[in-house]
Amino acid sequence: MTAHGTPTDQAPHPRPVDADEPWMRGLHADTGYLLYRLGLRSGQLFNAALQESGLRLRHYALLRYLATVEGAPQRDLSERLGYDPSAIVGLVDDLERLHLVERRPAPADRRRRIVVLAEAGRTYLRDTDEASHRVTDELTGPLSEEERETLHALLLRVAQTDRG
Amino acid sequence: MTAHGTPTDQAPHPRPVDADEPWMRGLHADTGYLLYRLGLRSGQLFNAALQESGLRLRHYALLRYLATVEGAPQRDLSERLGYDPSAIVGLVDDLERLHLVERRPAPADRRRRIVVLAEAGRTYLRDTDEASHRVTDELTGPLSEEERETLHALLLRVAQTDRG
DNA sequence: GACCAATCGTTGTCGACGTCAATGGTTGTC
DNA sequence: GACAACCATTGACGTCGACAACGATTGGTC
Questions:
Q1: DSSP E strands: which ranges in A58-145?
Q2: How many whole angstroms separate alpha carbon A140 and alpha carbon B32?
Q3: Cβ-contact B39, A36 below 8 angstroms
C-alpha cells in the first residue's frame, strides 16, 4: 500500500443530521455552518457514487479539469484545483495506474511532467457523468428546478470571490 | 497529549480556489462539488476564527446546541450533531477542561452523564457570537443582504431533507 | 562559464477526523 | 437472578489536508 492511499478505498458512511428540530435555530442560524455541514455530506455522497468506479471525488475533479485543458503540469493542477502539490502526486499516481491519465515529460522543462487525459479517461468521464448528476439531484432533492439554478448561481458567486 | 486532540490545535491555512476561469465550467458545473468546496472553506474559516479562543468548529457546534436544550446526555449530542459517540467524549473532555461545560450524573440512569452548559460557556457563546457572524459575512461577502437570506433559506431546505 | 536563488515533483511527517470493535458499568426484562 | 440492551469510554485503523525538506532542474547574474 502506498502512502497516499488507493482509489479503491471505501467511502465512509454518512451520518445524517437531524435539522428539522427547533434547536436547529441556534445551530443552523449560520450560513457558514450550514455550508460546512452540507459540504461534508456532499463529499460523502460523491465519494459513495464514485466508489463503484474505484475513484474518489478528488480524482474525479482532476479528471474533469484535465478534460478542459488538454494537458497540464502538476503545478497547474495544484493551483487550479486547490490541492497541495504533494496531494497531486498521489492522485496522478492512482489515475495513471488505471490508465486514465498519462504523465509526459515537458519538452522545454525537464522538471515538469505534463499530465494528459488518456482515451480511457475520456470514456470514464462520459460513463460517470450520469452518476454525477444523480448525486446533485439527490442533494438538491427538495428544491424546484428554478431554485436549484438560483442556489447554483449563488454558490458560484460565493466561490468566485473565495480567494486570498 | 490525549488521543482526541486538544482545543488549542492550530487551524490549517486555507487554500484559495481559482474559480473565475473558463475551465471551471467543467468542474463547478456541479452544485454538489461546489458545496463540497465551499464547505471545506467554511470549516477552515470557522476554525481560524475560533482558534484565538482555543476551540474548533465541532466544540462550538456542541456548545451552541447545549445552549438550546439545557442539558443533554452525550448520546443525544451524538445523534443531534451527527458525531460519533467516541468523538463526543473528546469534545466534552476539552470543554469540561475549560469549564465551559459540566458533566452531571443523570439522576434516573447512572449510565448517562448529562452535559450542561456552564456559566462560562454561556459567556463564551456571547463573546464569540460576533466572530461567528464575521465568518459568515466573509463567506457571503459578494452577496447582497437579500441574496444571503435566499442562500440561507435554500441551504436550510437542502439540509432539512438531508437524512437517511 | 560558474554560482545561486527559484521552481517542480516527490517523500515523509503530523494533526484532525470518521469509523469501528471492544470493554466496564448499568438498566430493564423475563 | 440470569441476560440482553444501552451508555460512555478507550483503542485501533485509515483517510485527509497542510507542511517541511529534498533531489533535480532551470534561469538569472556576476
A1: 72-73, 101-105, 113-117
A2: 8
A3: yes
Q: With an 8 Å Cβ cutoff, is B46 touching chain A?
A: yes
Distance A92 CA to C14 C1' (A): 23
Q: Please answer whether residues B80 and A23 qualify as being in contact, where contact means their C-beta atoms are separated by less than 8 angstroms.
A: yes
Q: Which residues of chain B have a CB within 8 Å of the CB of A65?
A: 23, 26-27
Residue B49 to residue A44: CA distance in whole angstroms: 25
One-letter amino acid identity for A95?
Answer: L
Write down which residues 76-105 in A have CB closer than 7 A to strand D: 82-87
Q: Is B27 on the interface with A (CB under 8 A)?
A: yes
Q: Is there contact between B9 and strand C, defined as CB under 7 Å from any strand atom?
A: yes
Which domains are present in chain B? 24-138 (1.10.10.10)
Count of residues making up chain A: 164
| Residue of A115, A67, A122 whose CA lies nearest to A91 | A115
- Nearest-10 crossing angle of helices B119-139, B31-51: 130
Give me B11's grid cell.
487551524
Name the closest nucleotide to B2, judged by C1' and CA.
D10
Average pLDDT over residues B96-114: 93
pLDDT tens over chain A, length 164 residues: 333 433 433 334 444 444 444 444 556 667 778 888 888 888 888 888 887 777 888 898 899 889 888 889 999 999 888 899 999 999 999 999 999 999 999 988 999 999 999 999 999 988 888 877 887 888 777 778 888 888 888 888 877 764 43
Q: Give the B window 58-77 contacts with A, CB below 8 Å.
A: 61, 64-65, 67-69
The fraction of chain B above a pLDDT of 90, given in percent, is: 32
Residue where the block lists cell 466573509: B138
- Cα-flanking dihedrals φ and ψ of residue A49, to 5°? -70, -35
